[in-house]
Amino acid sequence: MTSGTSRVPAQPADLPAAIEARGIRREYRTGSTVVTALDGVDLDVPPGEFFGLLGPNGAGKTTLIKILTTLLLPTAGAARVFGFDIEHQTRQIRRIMNMVAGGEQSGYGILEVREQLWMFSQFYGLAGREGWRRVDELVEAVGLAEQRHQRVSSLSTGQRQRMNVARGLLNDPWILFLDEPTLGLDVSSARGIRDLILDWQAAAGGRTVLLTTHYMAEADELCDRIAIVDRGRILAIGTPSELKRRVQGESVFRLELDRLDGGPATLAALPGVVSAVAAAAAAPGGPVRQTAVVNLVLHDDAALSGVVEALGGIGSRIVALQKSEPTLEDVFVELVGRGLEEEEAAPARPARTTTAIGSEPGSPPARPDTSHEAGDLEEDEPH
Amino acid sequence: MSSRLFPPPACSSPAEAAAWTRRRAWAGNLRALVGRAYPRVRGLNREPSWILFEILLPFLTTSAFVFVYRALQAPPEFVGFAVLGGAMTAFWLNVVWMMAAQLYWEKDQGNLELYFSAPMDMMSVLLGMAVGGLVMSSFRAAAVLVVATLVYGVAYSVEQWLLLVAVFVLTLAALYGLGMVLASLFLMWGREAWHLTQLLTEPVYFVSGLNFPVGRLGLIGALAVATIPLAVGLDAMRQLTFSGTDIAFDTPPPEIEALILVGMTVVFTLLARWSLRALETRARREGRLTVRWR
Amino acid sequence: MSEPGAPSSPGSPGVGGALDPARVRGDPGETWRAFATATRLGWQMEANWTDPFLFFVYSVAKPIASVLILVAMLEIIGGSATREYRGYVVVGSALWSFVMAGIAGLAWSILDDRERYRMLKYVVVSPSRLSVVLMGRGVARVAVGAMGAVITLAFGIVLLGVSFDLARVDWPLVALSMLLGLTGIVAVGLILAAVIMQTRQEAWSYPEAVAGALFLVSGAVFPLAVLPDPVELVGLVTPLPWWIEGVRRALLPDSVSGIGGQGSLWTGLTGTPAPEPIQVLVALFVTGVVSTLAAAIIFRAGTRRASSLGLFDRTTGS
Questions:
Q1: Residues of chain C contacting B50 with CB distance shorter than 8 Å
Q2: Would you say B54 and B98 are in contact if contact means Cβ atoms under 8 Å apart?
Q3: Which end of chain C has fewer surrounding CB within 10 Å, N or C?
């Protein structure tokens, strides 16, 4: 995708919103039953952001991505990608975006890696030679240089996914949609892909990534902001820290000291300290250590410096300091009332009409959760 | 690594990147056509079994009909009719299997959503499939024609070579136009599409007069000549390759049939353009672009 | 599946009972169970009478169109003089439904399971023999093909004027010919399936191409005497022409022979115009046995090669 001239890329501030969605609703009709995959989703993603959609299987993440990538029309609502309407300006959107899904088996096994990528480069209008050049660069970048002449059908899962990521970067998209890109990959391959995407995004301002995942750690590591999705609705949006603070406003530390004269009460009286409680010096069954361990709860991280100074003043030496943070799983449980694994392990439940359910038609409908009727749940307004 | 392997975007904004000129859009579609033809062509020498299955065996099938005529002691022209019909079958099957039903296979493979999310026109993709398959089909047709002609001693009598070539090209154009229309329909019909391809074999062979002059079918033949490119193209080619024969074709002269083919090409191409867009919108509305199991 | 916390070693009570020694590859009971399951599966997958469209396509349109092509050819060339051949081509075309189902059908089962359902590898690693599973699927397909055959025959009798006398039908010959013939067909189908296992996705058209080629040497639509001798000999060593001959002779006793006749190898070698029914059955049995042995060898070699090259879960395409 070149216009043949050298340009100074626009700064993110000069660009329209990467994604702007209002009231997105998607229903599927199976016989006489209406199944709601998305139930009024509002979303704003500024250019240059790495945005995550986090939620269990069947939450509606893939449905939303398919709408934004112009593969699916919403039943109601509207959305724009960099100012282009998803319903009426699909051609423009397709010129500036790309998508990569986890577990993709696309392409033609009889082709070599290089050939397969070149074929896709032609679909994005790259000139023949430019396409080969771009392919060779990306093959190098994704670590498939040794496999470039290998047939696609003989690639391992991790290699195949790296090839898919290379395909996603062929046209140098302004927005890249990643639908569970590390699904089924080993730790090393997954890490490699995450690093690659981060490198690509960091190389130029304005590049936006929308990632869907149900791996909390992945979202935590990669995303500037995360939307937690469940049953077709966005329950909360914020940075990982903001979301965790919903669950736990204070900062919790585990402090191990060589000694603590006066016990935890000494610390409890300090400014900014909510509580200081003695904890076990060792794990059950583990070796006993001659140290004092305190679980310290502070109003915020800033209070820690005061604690450290006070400890120095009374002659205590810090042996170990560990911050205990809630995970996004805790956030999910807080918002939804059940764990992610519980949600995924739940047996198929009888259908009810107009219940927000899975992202794909035909997926088993969920039992209506009467403990969390719409309106009971705390929802952040997107900003 | 980042700056070298991930250079800054060539365009300064998404709006600029999305604003393709008409010329660029056409060039892009042409490249997409070449890109999609590429795996078909590459596959030819990587999986050479097609030589047996796409050339030798179809020759034997055509031979079966030749021997039916021999058993009936039919005039020699009828052997030529069967041979021509066998040759043209290659192109018909290319249209039916490698164009019409292909989008269904692509959906099965997970390629369809990648095609639709790319900026190219779907007609380019379909044409690329057709062009890629054309190589194999041409080999098949040529092999059947040449070998059968030599083995069975078919004598041709061509007076208007230019018209014959024109009719052949127009037949292909009309066939591929029809293929694109069928592809868009198949997109909506899911697995029924695969079964529909079965309906487009023997029944179409019968009404198109694959092995006999279609005009002998009376009204059915007339309808076929008016609507099926295979029927009208094959009949015109027979009239031109066996000019001067006493056998009555009972169909319009080849010049008229050539005009019919022109009309079919235009109609099918326009219909394909409309139907691909209309059905894509419908498929997007109903979520049929990405669901595999139907 | 064991309950959490239960002992997980095979044979222990916590894992659904002791290991059943009958669950060993090659055990007759297991073989029958695999065959029956595959037949039932094939029937559910292929039997399409509940879907009018599918029924129309496979059991009505395709077979009838095939016979109409041939009848049209007869009419155009010989008109009423070729009426005696109508029965010949109608029976041959009707029986061809079985050939498509049994021969092409088995190959399509391989392609379906490998390319569409991605199940082939799971079948291969299961205790059931792949050949047994395929034969079960083949039997189901043949049963579905029977519908097309009956409809074509009925169409020919009712609408195309084929003279048919129910009282003159040799039912034992029909039954024996069908039993031996279908066994041979399934054997040939296994051979083709083994070949198809080695090819790529574009192979969807290959089974039909092979069936089309067999059309030439089967005597289905013209007597084998019309063929050059070497080609005729190829046909005579397969079960197809003997099977068709047996069924045709049983249904239409006055029909022209597909095996014998002036200029045929049979007449040249034996001096008789056509084989007797018992001779047909013997030849059918012998060719069927040979086909079955060949199928066993070729299928075994084919699966070995496919296994060594990792072809069972290879999906390719262009």
A1: 202
A2: no
A3: N
Nearest chain C alpha carbon to B78: C77
Chain A residues in contact with C316 by the CB 8 A cut-off are 108-110, 153
The pLDDT tens digits for A159-184 are: 999 999 999 999 999 999 999 999 88
**Cβ contact B64:A135 at 8 Å:** no
Does C14 map to a domain? no
Interior angle at CA C89, CA C87 and CA C92, nearest 5: 105
Please count the residues of chain A: 383
Give CA–CA dist C219/C214, Å, rounded. Answer: 9
ipTM of the complex: 0.87
- CB-neighbour burial class of residue B5 (10 A; exposed 0-12, middle 13-18, buried 19+): middle
Q: Is C308 domain-assigned?
A: no
Among A106, A115, A153, most C C-beta atoms within 10 A, so best to mutate, is A153
Question: Domain for residue C8, yes or no?
Answer: no
CA nearest neighbour of B133 among B98, B165, B102, B160: B98
CATH topology of domain A12-245: Rossmann fold (3.40.50)
Alpha carbon A287 to chain centroid, angstroms? 39
Q: Does B198 touch chain C (CB under 8 A)?
A: yes
- Tokens 């299955």 label which residue? B53
Whether residue C137 lies inside any domain: the answer is yes
pLDDT tens for chain B, residues 1 to 294: 445 567 777 788 899 899 999 999 999 999 999 999 998 888 877 777 778 877 888 888 899 999 999 998 999 999 999 999 999 999 998 888 888 888 877 887 788 889 999 999 988 999 998 888 888 889 889 998 999 999 999 999 999 999 999 999 999 999 999 999 988 888 777 667 777 888 888 999 999 999 999 999 989 888 898 999 999 999 999 999 999 888 888 899 999 999 999 999 999 999 999 998 888 888 888 887 765 443
What's the 3-state SS for C65-106?
HHHHHHHHHHHHHHHHHHHHHHHHHHHHHHHHHHHHHHHHHH
For A234, phi then psi, to 5°, come to -85, 120
Total residue count of chain B as it appears in this document? 294
Q: Work out whether the CA dihedral C174, C176, C177, C183 comes out positive or negative.
A: positive
Domain that holds residue C72: 26-208+216-298
Q: Collect all residues of chain B within an 8 Å Cβ-Cβ radius of residue A71.
A: 113, 116-117, 284, 289-290
* Rg of chain B in Å (alpha carbons): 22
What's the number of CA atoms in the CB half-sphere (13 Å) around residue C210? 25
Which pTM was predicted? Answer: 0.79
Whose tokens are 């066993």? That residue is C296
Task: Determine the residue of chain A that is closest to C315 in CA distance.
Answer: A109
**Residue ranges covered by each domain of chain A:** 12-245, 249-324
Residue of A334, A202, B81 whose CA lies nearest to C69: B81
Domain count, chain C: 1
Cβ proximity of C222 and B68 under 8 Å? yes
Cα separation, B204 vs B198, in Å, equals 10
Going across the sheet that includes A175-179, the strands are: A97-101, A175-179, A208-213, A50-54, A225-230, A233-238
